[in-house]
Structures are given as structure tokens and as C-alpha cells.
């Protein structure tokens, strides 16, 4: 059984999701969102869906974060909430 | 507003939690989702398609129609970014760097652009000197990333991977070029027109292979009818070869679309300076 | 006691997907910044993907790639219970790729809105719109 790893990763996932939504710096949101995607990818590898995990690792943690940082570069970094 | 949102979220959550009570246990092999269709895929995918990776077999063959229109969705995403952001107006002021001395020139008259060459170099407004270590490492790394991307596309039916992942990895290798050097370098090497053609050609390659099957006398996307086109193929895996062609089309389209989205976002559609 | 424990082991993955979905929904409704709303939307999407992948998981099963596919001994019998469900993986693979297209498009919209109104906060945007 690998449920201890599963529970640890799930805790981190929820922590990252809440942090990404509550940080007041959008660049911090971008990085936390990348970490969230990567932990999700880890979770799907644990559950055996390797193709989904591979896609998420390249798309969610890679290219999405780059788009995010590019958009912040062209807009404002600070936010009110 | 917050209070209202909190109540709505709590209600939705309570409803969903109530719904989970009826679910089969997590990891139960006899759950309804794992009893009907998926068993057919697992037991017959190798005989039907010749691809040991069931997911690729389902994506590119059994549900090939789905994937074709999904590639079209990706293409539309790139097209929408282009239409929203692309700005063809010339910028008024340009920055140049006198290379021998390092003096920065700010030319406000756009009528007389300086020739870029040995003496003057183009420069972004917020320009930082390129870091030697980052440039060298990225220059060494990029070809290996691209080879890995091609490996991912080519081995899609034997290992996790396929057109989407390979295309995204290839696109991100070129984005790495834009980040480590500057956007001008990328735009000069990979022209915008080429990207547009690639994005359309990938979707067309997919649809073309599918239509070719019709011309050869089969159904749309029936790869087995392609066998006369590859006479040297002695194994019975013609469907795997058709899937490979389709995956290459998907990879090309995804690569081009990722680059289109990145370049348009980072330069606000002007394709001149970025991160 | 063991009843409760087995219930937790059987269901905790689903509960966590519900929690993630609640987080994403809250971000979409309550956050003021448009980029934060987009992040909330993406968290919502990944929660749904997590749900699908959890449905497809089977205990004591391996990844959906056929073992010994090209053995010299010929094809051995394939037991469907040995491999996890490939169908949910396939559906979610397409969902992720579509999600990146929507994400890029949403970011392009955010950049465009910022170009026009010089802000991404929802209340300021509403003010600017009413001024026009």
C-alpha cells in the first residue's frame, strides 16, 4: 500500500491550492501554481495514470507557468486580495 | 460577496460530499467504470492496433475522431490569441546598442531605422546584458530537449507520451531559446508565417491521413486500409504506423500553437521584445 | 472503529477532490483579481481530472501499458483487472491539453483587458466601465 505517500501529497496539493489563491503577489501565485501542477502530476503517477501525469508535467507545470509569467510580465504584479 | 460565495461553495461541497456516499470504493476493481468498455480496450488493443500502450491506442485510434477535433480546438486557441493580441503597427521609438562602445541609442524617429549588423545591435527597452552561463547552458541543452521531444512522439505507442506531450516539449525548447537569448532571436529564426503554416499543417496532416483512408476504400480514420502504401511493412501493425503519422500531425500543431500563444502574450502582439 | 477506518480509506480521495473543487469555486467567485479567477478555474479543472483518474484506479493493478507485448512466446492471456482503466486516462489527457489552450486564451484576454483599462481588479474594472 502506498497510501501514506498519497495522503502526504494530497495534503501538499491542498496547501498549494489555498496558498496560490491567497498570496498577494501574482508571481508567487505563478510559482505556487506550478508546484500545485507538479504535485498533481505526482499524484497521478501514484495512481498509475502515467500518460496523464506526463501531460500534466509538460503542460501544467511547464508551459502554463511560462504563459502565466509572461502574462504577469505584461500586466501588474501586485493584487489587492 | 465573500459571505455569499462561502455559502454557495459550502452548499456545493455538501451536495458533492453527499454524492460521494454512493460511489464505489476507491480502487475497487469491480466499479462500474471498469467493467464494460475499458475491458474491451485492455484485452483487444494489441490485436486490433498493434500498440502496447492502451491509452495511445484509445486516443489515436478508437477515439481518433475526438482527438482530431481536439487538435482543432488547440488550433482555434492559438488563432484566438493571434486575433486578440497581434498588433501590426510599427513602434515609434527604437533602442539600439553601439556594440564596440556599449553606448545605448534611443531613436525616436521611426523613419530612419539604423542598420543592424556589426556596429549596431537591436536592444529591448528593459535590457539586461545576456548572462554567459545561462546562454551557453541553454544552447547546449536545447538540441537534447528537441531530440527528447521527437523520441516522445515516436515512442508514443510503446511508452507514455505521444503527440501532445512531444509537441509541448518541442515548443518549450524554443521558448527556452526566447527566454535565454531574447525574443528577437526566436522570431528571426522561426518566422511567424512558418508558425501559422505549421499549426494549420498539423491539423491538415491529421485530417489528411483520415481522409486518405476514405480514398483507399475504408471508413474515415480506418488506418488498416493504408497497408498498400507501406509495402515494406511485414509486421501486422499498419494501424500503429497510421497512429504515428497522426501523432506527428498533432505534435506539429501543438508545437506551433504553444509558440504562437507565448510570443503573442509576452510581446503584447508586437513580436519585438519580451522576457 | 474499523468501519470508520475502512470508510475513510475507501473514500478519502473523493473527499479531497470535493475540497479542491470547493477551493477552485471559491477562487472563481470571491476573488477580485482576474488572474486569480483564472487560477481558480484551473484548480477546478484539475479537481475534476483528479476525480476521473480516481475513478479509473484499480487496486493492485499496473500502468496501462501491456507487459511483454512482443514476447517470443507469443501473447499470453491478458487479464483486464491487472491494468488500470485506460479510458479515463484517455479522456483526461485530452482535457488537460484543452485546458492549456483555454488557459493561454484566458491569459491573452487578461493582457488585452489590462492594455485597455490599465487594471485587472474587478471592482476597478466595473468603475471604468460605468464611466464610459
CA-to-CA gap between the ends of chain C? Answer: 64 Å
Give the H and E element order of chain C.
HHHH
Integer tally of domains of chain A: 1
Strand content of chain A: under 5%
Mean pLDDT of chain A: 89
> Helical segment tally of chain A?
3
Number of helices of chain C: 4
Structural class of chain C: mainly alpha
Mean pLDDT of chain C: 86
Largest sheet of chain C: none
Terminal-residue CA separation of chain A: 41 Å
* Counted beta strands of chain C: 0
Indicate the multimeric state.
heterotrimer
Radius of gyration of chain C, Cα only, in angstroms? 22 Å
The SSE string of chain A, one letter per element, is HHH
Q: Which class best fits the helix and strand makeup of chain A?
A: mainly alpha
Task: Identify the overall geometry of chain A.
Answer: flat
Model regions low in confidence, pLDDT < 50 over at least 5 residues of chain A: none
Mind telling me which CATH architecture of chain C this is?
Orthogonal Bundle
Work out the helicity level of chain C. Answer: over 70%
Note down, in words, how this protein is organized.
The complex is a heterotrimer of chains A (81), B (275) and C (132). With 81 residues, chain A is mostly helical. Chain A contains three helices and no strands. Chain A is flat, with a radius of gyration of 14 Å. In chain B, α2 packs across α3 and α6 (163-180) crosses α7 (183-189). Chain C has a single domain (2-65, 80-131), classed as Orthogonal Bundle (Helix Hairpins), CATH 1.10.287.3510. Chain C is mainly α and 132 residues long. Chain C is elongated and about 70 Å long. Chain C is built from four helices and no strands. The interface between A and C is large, with 41 and 51 residues.
Fold blueprint:
The complex is a heterotrimer of chains A (81), B (275) and C (132).
Chain A: H1 3-22, H2 26-46, H3 50-74
Helix pairs in contact in A: 1-2, 2-3
Chain B: H1 2-20, H2 37-49, H3 54-62, H4 64-85, E1 94-98, E2 103-107, E3 120-123, H5 132-154, H6 163-180, H7 183-189, H8 192-215, H9 238-266
Antiparallel strand pairs in B: 1-2, 1-3
Helix pairs in contact in B: 2-3, 3-4, 3-9, 4-8, 4-9, 5-6, 6-7, 6-9, 8-9
Chain C: H1 2-30, H2 34-56, H3 86-117, H4 122-131
Helix pairs in contact in C: 1-2, 2-3
